[in-house]
C-alpha cells in the first residue's frame, strides 16, 4: 500500500477478495510483480502499479544479468540468521530466493558435513544495542567461531527492520542489499550507510 501511495484501509478490501491467498503467498520477483499489478487493477491505480512493477523488475534484472556468468563454485555459501540468543537460522522461501538472485549459494543447498558458511547475515528485529551486546558471545561459541564466515570477518548485521523481513515492494531493495554484501566487487548501492554493517569479533 505504501509503495502505491494507497491508504492502509485498502488492506481490508483486499482481504475480502478471492486473490488474497495468492497475495500473501507471493515470495518470488515474478509473483510479486503480478501481485502489484493485480492490486493496481483492483484499486484503480493500474498505471502506478505497472510503473512500480516495471521499476522493480528493471532493478533486479540489472543484478541477475551481471551475475549470470558466475559459476556456482565461485559463489559464497550464505547463511542467514534471525536471532542470536539462541542462534536461529532463517530458512524460508523468500530469503532463499533473494540469496540466490543476489549471487550466493543458500547454505542448505550446499552439502556439508559441518556448519561452515562463507558469509553469515544476521536479520534481526532486536534493538541494535541488545543485538551487538549478545553477538560476541554467540559467535565465540566453538560451533560458530570455527566457521569461515567468522574467521574471515564476513559477518553482517541488517539493522533496519524495514528490509529483508517480509515479501513486498521492497524486494528490489532487499536484493540490492544482499548483492552488495555477497558480491561487493560487482555492486555498491551504499546501503551500508542505512541498512547493514559488517561485524568483526577482532
What does this structure look like?
Strands 1, 2, 3, 4, 5 and 6 form a six-stranded mixed beta sheet that branches. The chain is of the alpha/beta class.
Low-confidence sequence ranges:
none
**How much is the average pLDDT?**
89
Shape: globular
CA radius of gyration is 18 Å
Count of individual helical segments: 9
> Roughly what percent helix?
40-55%
Strand count, sense and barrel status of the largest sheet are: 6 strands, mixed
What is the N-to-C order of secondary-structure elements (H for helix, E for strand)?
HHHHEEHEEHHHEHE
Summarize this entry quickly.
With 202 residues, the protein is of the alpha/beta class. The chain has nine helices and six strands. Strands 1, 2, 3, 4, 5 and 6 form a six-stranded mixed β-sheet that branches.
Layout of strands and helices, then pairs:
Layout: H1 10-15, H2 20-24, H3 29-42, H4 46-67, E1 77-84, E2 87-89, H5 93-101, E3 105-106, E4 119-123, H6 128-140, H7 142-145, H8 148-151, E5 155-158, H9 171-182, E6 196-199
Parallel strand pairs: 1-3, 1-4, 4-5
Antiparallel strand pairs: 1-2, 5-6
Which labels suit this protein?
6-stranded mixed sheet, 202 residues, alpha/beta, single chain, 44% helix, 6 strands
Amino acid at each position: 500500500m505504501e509503495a502505491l501511495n494507497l491508504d492502509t484501509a485498502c488492506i481490508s478490501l483486499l482481504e475480502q477478495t478471492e486473490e488474497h491467498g495468492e497475495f500473501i503467498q507471493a515470495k518470488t520477483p515474478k509473483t510479486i510483480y503480478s501481485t502489484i499489478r493485480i492490486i493496481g487493477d483492483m484499486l484503480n491505480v493500474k498505471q502506478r502499479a505497472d510503473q512500480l512493477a516495471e521499476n522493480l523488475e528493471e532493478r533486479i534484472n540489472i543484478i541477475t544479468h551481471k551475475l549470470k556468468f558466475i559459476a556456482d563454485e565461485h559463489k559464497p555459501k550464505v547463511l542467514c540468521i534471525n536471532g542470536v540468543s539462541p542462534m536461529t537460522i532463517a530458512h524460508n522461501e523468500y530469503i532463499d530466493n533473494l540469496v540466490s538472485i543476489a549471487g550466493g549459494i543458500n547454505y542448505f543447498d550446499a552439502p556439508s558435513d559441518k556448519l561452515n558458511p562463507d558469509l553469515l547475515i544476521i536479520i534481526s528485529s532486536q534493538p541494535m544495542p541488545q543485538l551487538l551486546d549478545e553477538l560476541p558471545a554467540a559467535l565465540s561459541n566453538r560451533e560458530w567461531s570455527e566457521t569461515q564466515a567468522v574467521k574471515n570477518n564476513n559477518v553482517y548485521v541488517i539493522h533496519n527492520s524495514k528490509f529483508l523481513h517480509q515479501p513486498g515492494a521492497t524486494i528490489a531493495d532487499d536484493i540490492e542489499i544482499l548483492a552488495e554484501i555477497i558480491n561487493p566487487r560487482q555492486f555498491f548501492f551504499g546501503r551500508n550507510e542505512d541498512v547493514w554493517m559488517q561485524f568483526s569479533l577482532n
